[in-house]
Amino acid sequence: MKIVQIVPYYPPHLGGMENVVKEMSENLAKRGHQVKVFTSDIGCKNVKLRSTKNLKINWLLGWEFAHSPILPSLFFKLIRIPKDSIMHVHIAQAFVPEIVFLVSKLRGISYIAHIHLDVGPSTKMGFLLPFYKKVFLQKVLSSSSKIIVPTKDYIDLVSKKYTISKNKIYKIPCGVDLKNFQSLSGKSHDLIRLLFVGRLSIQKNVPLLIRSFKKITEKNLRNIELHIVGDGVEKSKIINLIKAEKLEKKVILHGTLRGKRLYKIFSNSDIFILTSRLESFGIVLIEAMASGLPIVVSNIPAVRNVVENGKTGLLVKPSAEDFAKAIEKLLNNS
Question: Whole-angstrom Cα distance, residue 19 to residue 37?
Fold first, then answer.
């Protein structure tokens, strides 16, 4: 089968969607399917993954506008794909889905729409987002053969928001390879390590994490650190907040970690924290679970489908006070 994956970004670009598409493409290729990936070279111009047997990665020149990639050559690449191909478009930003829609109409090639996140406004152009979703994205979704989402909450959201029949929407949760993660049960050390892993973006709401940690350091006398793994457009803002709260000696910024280095920091940590405003799933949550970490996470849609409050983690109101209380509860039980 000829499968064409169209995704705005691809590893080594950082993100859950990127990793999902990579794993999916590699496994489809291993099963003998002919897989082509069309993606931007944004964030990976110097280091790019190479194509392998049955898997061809096409890196397209691109730039960003309003946090969405512009890929001038994508239309001309897709218009030439074999007509017996299946297009699988991964949706978290604008522009790319509309190109797939246009090619589908011109060539009569079906496509699957895979929603990784229903984004909210994040730039000065954010006021246009409701119009874009109502006029353009709704058309892309309604014209697709099938729609994939990662959680039950997203079935409800997509069906209601875009007037799509639930019979057309399929839930396929994300997963991780358990052999990569190690649970160090019975950890015993004086230093408590809190961990965050993710993009430093508005969506992840890292300033809330910093303010929550500040409250913990003011109330808790134990030796405690916050480790932040990731990079992104909010990095300078986060660094300034760390300095303003005088937490330079207690907050460690690791930048982007991958592979064994990432798995190791999961294993060496004690509590995982995610303060996101929006998530469609949160792959880092199941990575933390695979590492045996207790979780404190915002009580928001989709996350509630992944974390069961009081059993697999603590769901809390997204406020500094509530996050601090939940973390202190775990510290007092350790």
Answer: 13
* 300 Cβ neighbours under 8 A, 6+ residues apart: 276, 277, 278, 279, 318
Q: Of 107, 99, 59, which Cα lies nearest the Cα of 81?
A: 107
Q: What are phi and psi of 76, to 5 degrees?
A: -70, -25
pLDDT in tens, 22-76: 999 999 999 999 999 999 999 887 778 888 999 999 999 999 987 889 999 999 9
Name residue, tokens 């030796």. Answer: 223
pTM for this predicted structure: 0.91
Domains in the chain with CATH codes: 2-171 (3.40.50.2000), 178-332 (3.40.50.2000)
Cα 12 to Cα 40, 45, 195, 297, 316, distances in angstroms: 11, 10, 21, 26, 32
